[in-house]
Amino acid sequence: MNSQLKNAIINHQQEKVKQILKELKNDPRFSLVSLIDDLLPLMLMESNLSYGSFHFVKMSLFLKELLQKKYLSREAELEISKVVILGLSERHFINIKADSSGYKEKEVKQKSYDKLTEEINNGNSHNAFYYALGLLEKQPKGLKKHLLNLGMERIPDSLGHSVSCFFPVMRDIVNHHDDLAATAVLSYIMYLARYNYQEKYISKQEKTEKPSLDDLEDLGLKAVSGSGIVNLHHMITYYTFFMLEDSSFYQPLPPYSILKNYFGNKNIDQKRLKLIEINKKETQIAESYQEFKNNFTLSNYQDGLSFLFYNLNNNFKNTNSYLYQLFAEYYNPNWNPHYYTGLYCALGLYRSAKINDKKIKKMAVIQAIEYFVSNVL
């Protein structure tokens, strides 16, 4: 990475960051994926009192995934890059990097997991990290599942952050970045050490049966109901469980019973349901980003929902890109990573094969857009 850019970000030199950003955008070799990879060490030790740790790295990993899967156009990539680069320069970081050396035992046993949990319960992050290092080397899949199962217990207390923020880091960094894996694990342990745990989802005190489709969709309707940050997190956590189910290291199933306890008593949002019912017209498919903007404006988004859903149904890939690009045009120094995280999870639900109810999918998209509009416009 350009060392000038990194230094400018660390020192919050906004004007210099903007100048370097302009130069990067004019460079045909510029890749936001590569830039995100280069900036991951900073993101992993974010120290932000507004949103807590791991929000920015989670958002960036989701953007990286979309770019690698070709779900964002080059035009969108260049617009979104300012969200990542300028956004990062607005945040604060602890300059800590861990490595995987230090563990002296020749093998790991169940006792290693027990000691890891014991030290987390005692708030001893450094001792817990010692046991985690052995597991990271010998049983990385087991370690990731163990930590996430601890996080499961604290979903209601943390707005789901104890799992939803850390799952993409466990999946994308611990799996694929050996040089950053130890730092990622340390950061997660530091977070988990805020709480105490009974190992309910490790000892299988709680069943991990998957709900019937009807029950899963009933939970979905509740997850995508309501406004504001708390209700947005219900939807984010709901989709995170889908991602967990599809992951290679978290098997066989996440404990869906948590979701019922977390938001199962909510009422279904009747106003949002009505918006779905009155926005089913067939319109036209946008042939360009400008045509999309001409027909869908965030300031009056409810009037453009028929157009939006028609384009998502018939031209998902481009419409996905258009939405991310549109959000990026509204970047400001108070950018909240939940804007993109909410959009990512909503659009993930929209194309998910795990549920059939189109009302859930459309309500999720409305929920994410409404949250963005209510905070930015």
Structural account:
This protein is mostly helical and 377 residues long. The chain folds into 3 domains: 3-89; 110-192; 210-377, no CATH class. Helices cover 63% and strands 0% of the residues. It contains 20 helices and no strands. It has helices spanning 3-10, 14-25, 32-44, 55-68, 74-89, 110-121, 125-138, 140-153, 161-164, 167-176, 178-192, 213-223, 228-246, 257-263, 270-277, 289-295, 305-314, 316-328, 338-350, 358-376. Helix 13 crosses helix 20. It is globular. The model has no long low-confidence stretch (mean pLDDT 92).
Largest sheet entry: none
Count of helical segments?
20
Distance from N terminus to C terminus (CA atoms, Å) equals 34 Å
What's the overall geometry? Answer: globular
Helix content percent band: 55-70%
Task: Tell me the count of domains.
Answer: 3
Order of helices and strands: HHHHHHHHHHHHHHHHHHHH
Uncertain runs are none
Mean pLDDT: 92
Q: Beta-sheet strand percentage?
A: under 5%
* Multimerization status: single chain
Q: What is the strand tally?
A: 0
Structural classification: mainly alpha
